[in-house]
Amino acid sequence: SAAVAAVTGYQPNHPPMNFQQTPTGQLFNANVFSTATMKKRLPKQVYKQLISTIEGGHKLDCSTADVVASAIKDWAIEKGATHYAHVFYPLTGSTAEKHDSFLSPDGDGSAIAEFSGSQLIQGEPDGSSFPTGGIRATFEARGYTIWDVTSPAYILENSNGTTLCIPTAFVSWTGEALDKKTPVLRSMQALNIQAQRILKLFGHDDGKLVSSTAGPEQEYFLIDRNFYYARPDLLNSGRTLFGAKPPKGQEFDDHYFGAIPDRVLAFMFEAERELFKLGIPIKTRHNEVAPGQFEIAPLFESANIATDHQQLLMTTLRRTAEKHGMVCLTHEKPFAGVNGSGKHVNWSMGSASQGNLLDPGDTPHENAQFLLFCGAVIRAVHKFQGLLRAVVASASNDHRLGANEAPPAIISIFLGDQLTDVFEQIKAGGANSSIPKGTLTVGADVLPPLPKDAGDRNRTSPFAFTGNRFEFRAVGSNQSIAGPLVAMNTIVADSLEYCATKLEEATGGDPSKLHGELQKLLTEIMNEHGSIIFNGDGYSDEWHEEAAKRGLLNLKTTVDALPVLETQEVKDLFTKYEVLSERELASRLEIYLEQYIMSIKVELNLTVKIAKTMIFPAAIRYQGELVSNCASLKMLDYDFDTNTLDKVTELVKSLQDGISELEAAAAGSESEDMLSEATHCCHTILPLMNKVRATADELEGIVADDLWPLPTYQEMLFIK
Ligand code: ADP
Ligand code: MG
Hints:
Number of domains: 3
Distance between the termini: 16 Å
Coiled coil: 645-672
CATH class of the largest domain: Alpha Beta
Bound molecules: adenosine-5'-diphosphate, magnesium ion
Strand content: 5-15%
Structural class: alpha+beta
Shape: globular
Helix content: 40-55%
EC number: 6.3.1.2
Radius of gyration: 28 Å
Number of helices: 23
GO molecular function: glutamine synthetase activity
Family: Belongs to the glutamine synthetase family.
Domain GS catalytic: 180-615
CATH topology of the largest domain: Creatine Kinase, Chain A, domain 2
CATH superfamily of the largest domain: Glutamine synthetase/guanido kinase, catalytic domain
């Protein structure tokens, strides 16, 4: 086809860029108003104040804002910027920007560059077209963007100009969060407060901020853009709604960690170069399991910055792919029958003085502080397993979870052999009070030292301990990581609060009682919440049975999972720690249900349209060819059979029936209630779409290749 010809004739059409031109050391942060740049450009006092805001969470004094604004402006203009943009993160999960020019007319026909503190700190985009889930009627569309001092401003380059970008929170004029960032900041604050209480119990009340950290691994597909534009389904819904399995799939496992194709490598170099300039510390890249699938991972950063960077990373991958004649697909399941894409969110917490609080050291049984933080996570994940499932729920991620390529929809924790053993001992030991003074003796002393880089990996677990952090693997590749981070920060804050309160009361401020009481507390946690720990094969049927016996939730679809956001315990959780008010939480449920319904309806419309206007015509053309061929053979008195014609005719009939059924089901829906509408989409529309697809995919295996209207899996996945 034309698409294949265009692909095989591809020539790189822009000058190659490489790291040699500018050493990496100079590239990193080149386009960021970083702490180092601040230090150089700001008066000492102003710099100090800004740093104390960033590091200590103190309020920014408005009078310094003008000074900062003017420094940022000068810096940006030196870098060629003509515009500035407040960047914000609406609940759609995407990134939004409002651009303004620095230039103000000067009255005498010239223009001067202006940028005041108030323009830096606050903006007012017309928020009416962003979903607010009922928080605000559209006639009162006032929404404000507020500078997030903790996330640095940066410059975005384009071949025709550059823009100063200022990361902001987006709130309504009543102060309610309309975005993904605000709750991240609030949840980090909640976690810090509770973690400080614990550190104080251990004698570490040095006041250093405890920050949650995140390192997201991003999986994605690359395909040639000629194929992309020839597939209305990919173009409009991000995934293929039709397409038979290629003769060679991923069963050979020869792509995983294989050599990276040249064009892809060129793309990676350029993407990484751009990301470096933006201060995004890219560390790893490799092929993933499926053909055409890759992964990129930065070093971990503070959760808030990691979230902003993650959004920027997805945008950069998409932009750069275009330049290389490809399209970057971040959908969770662009191709049926080959692995989908996830985003493993590595999560931990730490402070400048204490380091990583989830680092067990070589002898975890002696590391009481670690055991407490780890125990708090165990309790949190068990108690709020439904919430963790809800924050990764989307129409697209439903195709992955539980599909034997991604973790099951059942949330459990993989601890690995060593830690499981330590915690089992704690559970069996009960309250052991014969603790020799001076040593930390929670648990027993008989454990082997932690093998660094523990060989015990378990890809089937949705929430795995991986040496010094937890890795939340159920997150979808297209998702903002904000939701999962808000959930993790808040549920762990809740557990730390629980532990701190118990220990403060039980010890009455006497540090010598701490370890005995901690032993009791951890035993209790293991008894009540230990059933969340599972180190076995999460893909197996036995686990589904076992999990049911343990009373763990198995929320298979988005429709099952999202209502968790309405439960009293989740409302209580978020209001207690002032992360989300009831109204803010309810608005999120409404928006996520709406997004679910909209995605499936777009797919429904595309399925009908493609089936009717592309696949059906191809099928009857081929049927026509077969008919005239049979007629000719008959005229010549040849002996022949009509098997192919019969099969095509049968499939054409079932394609037509399938389309009619789907259309009827679509017309019969439109419920006022969002949840029942979503349920209808899940349990009626989707299966009927799959039925139409199954027929079409069978036709693909029969109809003449030159008549088939869509690029095939074989072409899309294997042509580089
Ligand atoms: P793998 O593919 O083996 O799981 P990668 O090296 O691809 O590992 O990714 C691991 C991710 O975990 C990286 O982003 C890394 O920075 C991150 N990480 C490491 N330590 C922490 C931590 N303390 N908190 C959060 N993320 C972390
Ligand atoms: Mg990983």
